[in-house]
Design a protein that fits this description.
It is built from 28 helices and 30 strands. The chain is α+β, with helices and mostly antiparallel strands and 930 residues long. The strands form five sheets. A ten-stranded mixed β-sheet has the order 3-4-5-12-13-14-15-23-24-26, covered by helices on one side. Strands 7, 8, 16, 17, 18, 19, 20, 21, 22 and 25 form a ten-stranded mixed β-sheet that branches. A six-stranded antiparallel β-sheet has the order 2-1-30-10-9-27. Strand 3 and strand 4 form a beta hairpin. Helix 23 crosses helix 24. It starts with 16 loop residues before the first helix and ends in a 6-residue tail after the last strand.
């Protein structure tokens, strides 16, 4: 079956020069020569520079964010790019250095780091100043851009001016993207950008999770301001100044006619008369944007209904007692062999299995139906592709905690060559054009930082560095989402709330679209409808013990998308963060689920953030519970969705551990993560093994830590950590079958060479050990099915694959962006295979599966299963393993793995070789401290 390729969501119809020919003929020649090739608001001023006396990194801070800082393009620039591949200035100048690390890391030294990264020092040397501007003519803020990357360095003499400049720079670099995502957050993308099936799926995914009204958005701002004293008031003032800067840029680019060309191509502006409007941003737009970011990367948990379905399947096969044991063994909620971020043995119990579960509301077998979201389809909204997009969006929105990415490697000064801590860290936010994040430096009263921020939320740096410290985050995914079974009364739209039959709240968003130059999808419309209860939006319907119920989803950050602004404000404040304890205090004000890492010249630190609700005694967070007071969160107030949360000391945290690694793995002993698969083999092991070895040897340098990250980024987790054990079973007797023997030989050679998916040479677009890689890609899903389905039975096997997919190879269509997305090996059955094979081999296994599955536990029978499935895999051609898509021809292995910058605007970029690596990344080693 062909892989799901990420379509050009907003500009799929502008894919070839031929499509553009007619449009070019009708576009006025004046458009191409009237100054649209670049904004005219910036002036060269090489004699000016930014002071950097507050920089304590000694030139040893670096960062990178592909494809480039410039995410805006005029109409002329878009047309030239689509027709001839010409790139606007700074649109992809960070893509090459980022890509080149994959083949250039082996010879890396500290002096060569900035061959692959930007110098992230504060300020701009005078000979590197590309332009200087006073946005809107203000005298209290200056934006300087550097020559190498075009990053805005914003310096203000007043707080208002500083934030105004941040907003203006955001408009310059990401206006179209910001506009897209404020519409996504409101469920209004199709009416704004076109009715392409992918656009429909995107708005449906987020609207299902956060169906907010305008009043809801404003209330969240009011709550965040009212509950945070002076900092809340400052955040509101900063946001208003930031918005004023964005809107000033909208006005300037509109009157100057250098606004993003996508507004013309989607019908919002006229290229000849300049008729049409670009709506100003308002403060509730920031909450809508925040809800998208939080949903994608910071909201762990959910999936309780799917958990219940697989538990029911297990109990149906094995009986209640044994079925529950089997289910728990696959859930691995507190696996003894899981790699940990806090590895000093300290325990942080959270969401543990209760001794005597209370209030569970498991559905009657066969009764669960998913709540519809889309109604009243007309025109193209009723096509098969549109309905398929709705199904995919629902699965993504309701999946069991399969959210977020990112990694971190941090080593304490005791183990480095310089005696100062070293860190290499960053978020994996996917690959987009323009990128979701943007780089900036902000210097002003109470703010001193450089780094990355999500477009439209860049009033503060969200991931980056301060004067003498750096911080970053990975998605943590602990469970802050619970599912409640509300008993229905009167009809399907009333429910019992604390004994009273109460009407559900109906929230609707009606969208309609028509064809544009950018998106030729025929006219259509639909209505998205969500039924909300005090316990959150309805997601499923079922019966429990014969009673009709609706299953609702309640997230602790629901109606609190704006709360985290205070934590980011603190992280940017040099007067607040002066050491690791201050950093941890700031992170405690972030209500989304993240792992936060810190490094300065003397200390390292870690903190796991998120509003972890205190659950009622006996409630098992894995399954739905009755919507009754006895099972609600402690001191839960449904009017504000606030409750008691676990104290900061109960969150995994640490200072000055020998080293920290994170790749979305388990945080600490006894801390249950929401995702399945945190067992003996996890991609976090790829970092753990390499960093542990470096620390044991001592003398760690920045380049050594970058090399460890880059090497892990090319590793095939299955091949490095599981394949040797599979081969041990196969080689337990001589392999006489010639097909199997040849395959085994190729696989063994690849393992010996390092089990990497890497080119034969830079730019060859051909993998070394290509046959072995093809064989494993084909074999893995076959061997998992052959190993487990006979013992589990097809129903339970299918149910478990609904909780955790079997594979996440680079070429597979997976994750929020489909194929060509980079991030790989986060979710899969590698731990199950590892534990089962070790058990069959008679090796020690802590927290093993409830029984042996491969060959029924017989080594000989298991060997036969593996050889049989291996022979089947070896017989598949490259074209069968890599069937091709609209970016790659069938059989092109390198292309199937390759990373594509998914277009969210009119500018396209070329593919790069696969790396499993953060999108934005920092390399830091501070030399001194204030």
């Amino acid at each position: 079956m062909p892989r799901r390729t990420p379509r050009n969501v907003l500009f799929d119809k502008l894919r070839t020069p031929r499509r553009l020919t007619g449009f070019l003929k009708t576009a006025s020649v004046c458009v191409l020569v009237a100054g649209l090739l670049c904004p005219l608001t910036r002036t060269a001023a090489a004699e000016e520079s930014v002071a950097a006396s507050n920089d304590y990194c000694g030139g040893q801070c670096s960062d990178i964010l592909p494809p480039g800082e410039n995410g805006n393009a005029t109409l002329a620039q878009i047309l030239l790019n689509q027709a001839f591949g010409i790139q606007p200035s700074h649109a992809e100048d960070q893509l090459g250095p980022y890509a080149n690390l994959a083949t250039g890391y082996s010879g890396l030294t500290d002096s060569k780091i900035n061959t692959f990264f930007n110098d992230a020092s504060f300020g701009v040397p005078s000979d590197q100043v590309a332009s200087t501007e006073k946005p809107a003519g203000r005298g209290d803020v200056t934006i300087i851009r550097d020559k190498k990357a075009g990053v805005p360095h914003i310096t203000g003499t007043t707080r208002y001016g500083t934030e105004f400049g941040a907003g203006y720079a955001a408009g310059e670099d990401r206006l179209w993207l910001m506009d897209v995502f404020r519409h996504v957050g409101r469920g209004q993308l199709t009416g704004f950008a076109g009715g392409a099936a992918a656009n429909q799926g995107l708005e449906q995914q987020f609207y299902r999770n956060a169906p907010y009204t305008e009043a809801d958005l404003q209330a969240q701002i009011d709550h965040a301001v009212a509950n945070n004293g002076a900092r809340g008031q400052q955040a509101l003032a900063d946001a208003n100044a930031y918005l004023a800067g964005i809107n000033a840029y909208i006005d300037a680019s509109d009157s100057g006619r250098y606004f993003p060309g996508e507004y013309v191509l989607t019908g919002h502006k006229d290229s000849i008369t300049n008729a049409g409007t670009i709506d100003h941003f308002k403060i509730t737009d920031l909450v809508a944007l925040g809800s998208v970011v939080g949903s994608l990367f910071g909201s762990g948990g959910g999936g309780e209904v799917n958990n219940a379905l697989s538990l029911i399947a297990a109990q149906s096969k094995y009986g209640v007692e044994q079925g529950t044991k089997v289910w728990e063994s696959f859930r691995e909620r507190n696996d003894a062999e899981a790699v940990l971020t806090v590895h000093d043995g300290e325990s942080f119990p959270y969401a543990a299995k209760p001794d005597s579960p209370q209030g569970e509301a498991l559905p009657d077998p066969g009764s669960v139906t998913q709540e519809p979201l889309v109604y009243d389809r007309t025109g193209s909204a009723g096509t098969t592709s549109a309905e398929a997009a709705s199904s995919t969006a629902a699965r993504t929105a309701l999946g069991s905690a399969r959210r977020g990415m990112s990694n971190a490697l941090v080593v304490g000064g005791k183990y480095t060559a310089s005696g100062h801590p070293v860190a290499v860290f960053g978020p994996q936010t996917g690959y987009f054009a323009p990128q979701l994040l943007m780089l900036q430096e902000i210097q002003g009263p109470g703010i001193s930082a450089r780094g990355a921020s999500f477009a439209g939320l860049s009033m503060y740096v969200e991931l980056g560095r301060g004067q003498d410290y750096s911080w970053s985050a990975t998605t943590s995914g602990q469970d802050i989402i619970d599912t409640y079974a509300v008993e229905l009364c009167q009809d399907d739209y009333h429910y019992l709330y604390r004994g009273t039959c109460t009407a559900m709240d109906k929230v609707e968003q009606k969208n309609a679209w028509k064809p544009t130059v950018a998106d030729g999808t025929a006219a259509g419309s639909y209505t998205m409808r969500v039924w909300r209860t005090r316990y959150g939006p309805v997601e499923y319907r079922a019966t429990v013990g014969g009673k009709k119920v609706a299953y609702t989803t309640l997230r602790s950050s629901y109606l609190h998308e704006a709360d985290s602004i205070i934590g980011f404000q603190m992280l940017n404040d040099p007067d607040y963060v002066k050491g690791p304890k201050d950093f941890q205090s700031a992170a405690q004000h972030i209500n989304y689920t993240f792992n936060w890492f810190y490094a300065d010249s003397r200390h390292t630190a870690y903190y796991n953030s998120g509003d972890n609700p205190v659950r009622a005694s006996g409630v098992d967070a894995e399954f739905p519970v009755w919507a009754q007071p006895a099972y609600e969160w402690k001191n839960w107030d449904p009017a504000t969705n606030t409750a008691d949360y676990t104290p900061a000391s109960a969150h995994p945290n640490s200072t000055d551990q020998d080293y920290y690694i994170s790749w979305n793995n388990k945080q600490a002993k006894d801390y249950t993560t929401a995702s399945w698969g945190d067992g003996s083999v996890h991609r976090g092991n790829l970092l753990e093994d390499r960093v542990k070895k470096l620390v044991a040897a001592g003398g760690v340098t920045r380049s050594a830590l970058v090399k460890a990250m880059a090497d892990a980024a090319l590793a095939d987790l299955r091949a490095e950590d599981v394949l040797p054990k599979l081969l041990k079973v196969i080689n337990s007797s001589p392999v006489t079958d010639p097909t199997a023997a040849a395959a085994v030989s190729k696989l063994q050679t690849w393992v010996t060479a390092g089990a990497r998916r890497t080119e034969t040479s830079a730019g060859s677009k051909t993998y070394a050990d290509a046959d072995a890689i093809r064989i494993l890609d084909a074999w893995w899903p076959l061997l998992v099915k052959a190993e487990f389905e006979p013992g589990l039975g097809s129903d339970l096997y299918t149910a478990f694959t609904g909780n955790l997919p079997v594979d996440e190879a680079p070429s597979a269509g997976h994750g929020p962006t489909g194929s060509h997305a980079g991030s790989s090996f986060q979710y899969g059955w590698w731990s199950y295979v590892d534990k089962d094979i070790r058990a069959v081999l008679g090796e020690s296994v802590q927290g093993g599966l409830a029984q042996k599955y491969c060959g029924g536990g017989s080594l000989g029978a298991c060997r036969d299963v593996l050889i049989g499935s291996l022979k089947q895999a070896a017989g598949l051609t490259a074209a069968q393993v890599y069937p091709g898509d609209d970016l790659c021809s069938a059989g092109d292995q390198w292309c199937a793995d390759s990373i594509n910058q998914r277009t969210l605007g009119g500018i396209k970029h070329g593919k790069i070789s696969w790396q499993n690596r953060p999108t934005f990344q920092q390399v830091v080693e501070y030399t001194s401290h204030r």
